[in-house]
Amino acid sequence: MTDESRPSFRDDVTVELVKHSASDADVLFAARVSTRGEQSLDELGKDPERSKGLLNYLMRDRHGSPFEHNSMTFFVSAPIFVFREFHRHRVWSYNEESGRYRELRPIFYVPGRSRKLVQEGKPGRYVFNDGTDEQHKLVTEVMESSYRHSYAAYQEMLEAGIAREVARAVLPVGLFSTMYATCNARALMHFLSLRTKSDDAKVPSFPQREIEMVAEKMEALWAELMPLTHAAFVANGRVAP
Question: Per mean pLDDT, which range of 77-86, 122-131, 182-191 is the poorest?
Fold first, then answer.
């Protein structure tokens, strides 16, 4: 087995902001067109700090469309099961690597020691608790063994001339994939309201930890681009306008 075909295991995700056209001023010129027409473009050359009150008003009273006139494209590396949750956010744009057109790399997700493993309670009222050392050992050993077996089966079929689109069927959702994901600030706020758990949230959310890891990284990048908008989002209970 070559190094390229030898399975490797990760307990993290990565998010890179690869392209953007997003600033607090983008919200302000879009909002002020309703009263100032073409003069609203003057906002692009002004300090948005002086209009924090308007941003907060728009967020508080849920005037959402001004938050749509911007764009952010992220490059995400995460397990396939994270992307399947992600794609439920249908106003985003996605392009993901294809198992039909390239040989998929043997990189697999194994939960880190901090990942809570034990679910207790009824649906809608359950909580997750830390697993024991034995449970974490079991998860690691079973997952790694299963991944190695499935990838070996995948390689066996490829070497026999089986098409990639057929052979990939044996691979698990713990396999890492990559995608570009593009959104505007309003769509991102909706995503964050559902995919992060925060004491600041008016409406509680209980996301799966792995997609929350992606969301946390996206939020940190967005907060640098649009700090006033992000602050208004947090101050108003993390509710998307």
Answer: 122-131
Kindly state the percentage of the chain with pLDDT values over 90.
84
DSSP 6: S
Phi, psi of 78 (to 5 degrees): -160, 165
Q: Catalytic residue at 195?
A: yes
Sheet of 71-79, strands arranged across: 14-21, 71-79, 176-183, 93-96
* Given 32, 168, 186, 195, the catalytic residue: 195
Task: Give SS3 for 8.
Answer: strand
The two tokens of residue 6 are: 């030898």
Q: Which residue has the higher pLDDT, 104 or 122?
A: 104
> What is the reported pTM?
0.93
Contact at 8 Å (CB) between 215 and 13? no
Looking at residue 75, its amino acid is F
